[in-house]
Q: What sequence folds into this?
């Protein structure tokens, strides 16, 4: 279903429909995350991906009032398609060495994850392990994340706020 | 039939290549950003599927559960999603400014205007 939505996104002509379909795509992603036991990520994806990104896209479309030139019919382009297919084939060849889906002995589950699962309840407190990792063990990541959001916010204000002053 | 267990990677690669194609082939800047968004989401799915464990449950501590999904990729991807929104907001703001400067959001039209001036 995700694949179908993605293809539809490639084929769609109307930018407005593409923006709405992005929201649907994010919601499908969120349900996929629930299926893979990542409830926290699914929450965030549903709120942020389906909510904020769709609103931002619609806001941009409202600001630029879709110029008529963007309606030109799309034709399949050979060179990008060839590059994409070759890269995809190489990547699929590389997956032969990857651990199988859901393998409990995959390398990803051997390093610090077991310690988080065993000790985070006693060391940090909250029953949700993701919260413990986010706020305590990897607190610096979250600090960096806040910095990135702050920088992006400042950037958006500098790009758009300046213009409003000019116009008034 | 060991190879069928890698289907999560195939989905990821397909979505990734779809996003890459959108970025390459479309002149419209908003479509390029949507392509980047698809690419980004495919990386999220890759990480979350790497953290999934067969017959495990969500990583919330409970007496009756013995097997949890790996919480580390979840925490990383939570951060990544939020950072993704921040970059997306910046990209869309840039597009609005480009539209003001050139009156177009089409790559080809912008290049044409640059060539003429």
A:
């Amino acid at each position: 279903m995700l694949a179908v939505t993605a293809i539809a996104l490639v084929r769609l002509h109307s930018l407005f429909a593409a923006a709405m379909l992005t929201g649907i795509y994010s919601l499908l992603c969120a349900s996929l995350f629930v299926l893979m036991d990542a409830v926290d990520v699914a929450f965030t994806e549903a709120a942020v991906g389906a909510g904020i990104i769709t609103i931002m896209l619609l806001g941009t479309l409202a600001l630029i009032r879709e110029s008529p030139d963007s309606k030109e019919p799309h034709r399949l382009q050979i060179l990008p398609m060839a590059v994409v297919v070759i890269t995809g084939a190489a990547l699929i060849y590389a997956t032969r060495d990857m651990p199988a889906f859901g393998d409990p002995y995959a390398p990803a589950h051997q390093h610090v994850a077991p310690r988080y699962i065993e000790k985070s309840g006693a060391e940090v407190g909250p029953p949700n392990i993701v919260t413990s990792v986010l706020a305590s063990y990897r607190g610096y990541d979250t600090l960096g994340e806040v910095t990135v959001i702050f920088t992006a916010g400042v950037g958006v204000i500098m790009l758009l706020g300046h213009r409003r002053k000019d116009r008034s | 039939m060991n190879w069928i267990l890698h289907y999560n990677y195939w989905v990821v690669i397909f979505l990734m290549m779809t996003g890459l194609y959108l970025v390459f082939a479309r002149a419209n800047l908003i479509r390029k950003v949507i392509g980047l968004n698809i690419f980004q989401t495919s990386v999220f799915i890759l990480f979350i599927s790497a953290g999934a464990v067969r017959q495990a449950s969500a990583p919330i501590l409970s007496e009756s559960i013995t097997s949890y999904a790996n919480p580390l990729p979840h925490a990383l991807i939570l951060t990544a999603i939020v950072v993704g929104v921040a970059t997306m907001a910046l990209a869309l703001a840039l597009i609005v400014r480009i539209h003001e400067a050139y009156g177009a959001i089409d790559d080809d039209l912008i290049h044409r205007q640059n060539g003429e001036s």
User: Anything to note?
Assistant: The longest helix of chain A spans residues 139-167.
